[in-house]
Design goal:
heterodimer; A: about 140 residues; alpha/beta; Rossmann fold; 4 strands; globular; B: about 220 residues; four-stranded parallel beta sheet; three-stranded antiparallel beta sheet; 7 strands
């Protein structure tokens, strides 16, 4: 049975500048998988653990966050805070016996760069292989 | 403050297996300050409960609430606002809160979502350490303000055991030998002679060894 994952990406204003410049169509042409929904934030430091959990509650099979490089966050520590929160979700997923790989943190420089697309492709491949999230009560 | 930590999710889920409507109840007191059971943690636990139950094929409804304090009858009465809306209460307060709810709501099912750990302070963001054992007979005036009851692994009352190395405890080398610290501090405050004082055999009845403790203040009771 074919499976198209629902992947929610949370990206900060700076690392996702490419989305503004290219728009949805341009990103697809660059290779961003259609399974990914981009959620833009002023800073990933604004992300709360509950926001990431809600993405899973709303049916996401995978979630990832793209923030600034650890030592180059526009808001100094925003992406570090986001990384800690992603780690907290990973631990919670383990507690619930769900694959922690369903959530990931990426640190990327701002502007146009292929890594932004690659992160999406990596997550699409990973989550497709993992199958539907166990929270959805569906089998692989 | 009282420091607590959230229990593992499988333990909490195990408590509420049969519940369909859960009141997740936080406390704005100590557990908010130590990020274990405040409003934010209530939101997270409620989400984890819904996800965990869903994974088991069960639907559960959660109500999220946070009281000013769960250790005070005046505030516990606030639970009345959710009367009839829950099958079980999962309290994120310390053990005092769980006990208070149980005392006041004789037929309600109440479960603890945190492990109440110790009386402590925040050394830095995200780090808490035990400072007081609540032993009921404070001797800090004799020990330079540093407590051997709470902070000596062997609860020694008359100086170090002799096992410490470089000022660190032999039980856990990451922990300072509190008797070394007491010695050094008494020296700094010109009270080193306090080290020569022999503390008598201690009556631990005030520390809970004489049963549950109670404080009664005639000047405050009505």
């Amino acid at each position: 049975m074919s499976f198209t994952p629902d992947i929610q990406a949370f990206t900060c204003h700076y690392t996702s500048q490419q989305t503004l410049a290219e728009g949805e169509k341009g990103l697809k042409e660059d290779g961003l998988p259609g399974s990914i929904t981009l959620n833009r934030l002023v800073c990933t430091g604004k992300l709360q653990v509950s926001t990431l959990l809600k993405a899973f509650e709303d049916g996401a099979d995978g979630v990832y966050v793209v923030g600034c490089p650890i030592d180059q966050c526009h808001n100094v520590m925003g992406s570090q805070r986001a990384a800690k929160r992603v780690l907290a979700i990973k631990k919670a997923l383990v507690e619930l016996d769900v694959e922690p790989e369903r959530i990931e943190m990426y640190h990327q420089a701002r502007g146009f760069h292929p890594e932004f697309i690659e992160a999406g492709q990596k997550m699409d491949k990973r989550i497709t292989e993992l199958g539907p999230c166990p929270f959805k009560g569906e089998s692989k | 403050m009282i420091v607590a930590e959230r229990k593992p999710m499988n333990e909490v889920l195990g408590m509420v297996q049969d519940a369909k409507r859960i009141l997740v109840l936080g406390c704005r007191g100590c557990v908010t300050v130590c990020s274990a059971g405040g409003e934010r943690e209530v939101e997270i636990l409620a989400s984890l409960l819904r996800l965990g139950m869903k994974k088991q094929g069960k639907e559960v409804e959660t109500i999220e609430g946070t009281l000013v304090r769960q250790c005070d009858k005046e505030y516990i009465d606030g639970i009345d606002q959710w009367d009839g809306q829950y099958d079980a209460i999962v309290s994120m307060a310390c053990g005092v809160g769980v006990n208070f709810i149980s005392n006041l709501l004789p037929t309600a099912k109440v479960y603890p979502a945190v492990n109440t750990t110790f009386f402590g302070g925040s050394e830095e963001q995200g780090v808490w350490s035990e400072q007081c054992a609540g032993c009921g007979d404070c001797i800090l005036h004799l020990t330079g303000g540093l407590c051997p009851v709470a902070r000596c692994a062997k609860n020694l009352m008359n100086g170090p055991c002799g096992g410490s190395v470089d000022g660190k405890c032999e039980i856990n080398p990451k922990v300072e030998c509190i008797w070394q610290s007491i010695h050094d501090r008494l020296g700094r405050i010109d009270s080193q002679e306090m080290m020569n004082r022999i503390m008598p055999i201690r009556d631990w009845s005030t520390a809970g060894h004489g049963g549950p403790r109670k404080v009664l203040r005639d000047d405050l009771t009505i």
